[in-house]
């Protein structure tokens, strides 16, 4: 028996009402999309002090929740063709990188996450070959020619704006530490307008960044001899003070260390096992729980 059209329509409406598409919002943002670079460091015209202010090095970073654009993110990214960026016949080609670090407290299983980079202007004759890397996954773009050199000194009237949108595959942005890197492989400079990460409104960044930043936790694929242990590798950035880092495994303390300066890769010794098993870990900084999770332990080849 054929169902009446009214019944089919009612059934369709019930099905649709049960489906919800997560609303999208701004997870974090650097700068404001306003056709101006005034809110960034070195703006409007101090581009020649890029190296002097220690920007562009691989070990430097902008930390979401701790850094601010006016001090820690430059308005311009020089390319290998720019002598003021360090490239010369004696020094060689210099490719600068800007790193963005952020921790996610929660990442929903459903809903898109998108990285949006608004570029205010580029060099008028030699625009950059721009590379974006998100947690090891890369995209490359030959940017369009810009409106002239005036924007490099704060005159934005003739800027040619460009927008990059990258839809990030599910699982690429993860709970815990994440990293985005921006660099120019060829060509000259670009000027930023704004950078932001958009996603479902229940995607949440770390609320508080203390005296150290936890980049990530990974199980080592080797075993130490004395004592016999499979290390749990704790990747950390010291930020300020003398933070105390503590690691527990199944409720038992396996590491307690005070940080002083720089980046650390600590080996928290998990007792060696003779067969595969799963354990729970917790990383605390100054007594505050920063990350918990499960790790798979297994017998490994000893190294000295």
Task: Produce a short descriptive summary.
The protein is mainly β.
Topology:
Layout: H1 5-17, E1 24-31, E2 62-63, H2 69-72, E3 76-77, E4 97-106, E5 113-122, E6 129-134, E7 137-142, E8 162-168, E9 176-186, E10 190-200, E11 204-205, E12 212-219, E13 223-224, E14 229-238, E15 244-249, E16 252-258, E17 263-271, E18 277-285, E19 288-297, E20 302-303
Parallel strand pairs: 2-4, 13-20
Antiparallel strand pairs: 1-10, 3-10, 4-9, 4-11, 5-8, 5-10, 6-7, 6-9, 12-14, 14-17, 15-16, 15-18, 18-19
Would you give an account of this structure?
- It is built from two helices and 20 strands.
- With 304 residues, the protein is mainly beta.
- The strands form five sheets. Strands 2, 4, 6, 7, 9 and 11 form a six-stranded mixed beta sheet that branches. Strands 1, 3, 5, 8 and 10 form a five-stranded antiparallel beta sheet that branches. It has a four-stranded antiparallel beta sheet with strand order 16-15-18-19, with no helix packed on it.
- β18 (277-285) and β19 (288-297) form a beta hairpin.
- The longest helix has 13 residues, at 5-17.
- The chain starts with a helix and ends with a strand.
- Residues 10-21 have low confidence and may be disordered.
């Amino acid at each position: 028996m054929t169902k009446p059209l009214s019944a089919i329509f009612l059934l369709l409406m019930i099905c649709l009402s049960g489906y919800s598409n997560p609303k999208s919002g701004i997870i974090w943002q650097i700068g404001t999309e306003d056709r101006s670079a005034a809110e960034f460091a070195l703006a409007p015209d101090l581009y020649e002090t890029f190296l002097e202010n220690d920007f562009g090095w691989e070990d430097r970073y902008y930390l979401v929740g701790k850094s601010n654009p006016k001090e820690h993110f430059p308005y311009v990214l020089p390319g290998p063709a720019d002598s003021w960026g360090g490239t010369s016949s004696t020094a060689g080609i210099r490719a600068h990188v800007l790193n963005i670090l952020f921790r996610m407290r929660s990442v929903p299983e459903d809903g898109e996450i998108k990285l949006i980079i608004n570029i205010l202007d580029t060099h008028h004759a030699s625009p950059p070959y721009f590379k974006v890397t998100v947690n090891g996954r890369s995209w490359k773009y030959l940017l369009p020619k810009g409106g002239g050199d005036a924007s490099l000194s704060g005159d934005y009237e003739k800027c040619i704006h460009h927008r990059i949108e990258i839809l990030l595959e599910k699982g690429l942005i993860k709970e815990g530490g994440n990293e985005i890197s921006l660099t120019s492989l060829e060509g000259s400079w670009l000027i930023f307008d704004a950078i932001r990460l958009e996603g479902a409104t229940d995607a949440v960044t770390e609320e508080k960044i203390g005296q150290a930043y936890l980049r990530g936790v990974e199980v080592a694929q080797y075993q130490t001899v004395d004592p016999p242990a499979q290390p749990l590798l704790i990747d950390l950035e010291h930020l300020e003070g003398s933070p105390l880092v503590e690691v527990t495994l199944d409720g038992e303390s396996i590491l307690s260390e005070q940080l002083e300066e720089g980046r650390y890769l600590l080996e928290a010794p998990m007792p060696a096992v003779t067969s595969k098993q799963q354990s729970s870990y917790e990383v605390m900084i100054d007594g505050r729980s920063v990350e918990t999770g499960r790790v798979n332990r297994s017998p490994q080849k000893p190294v000295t």
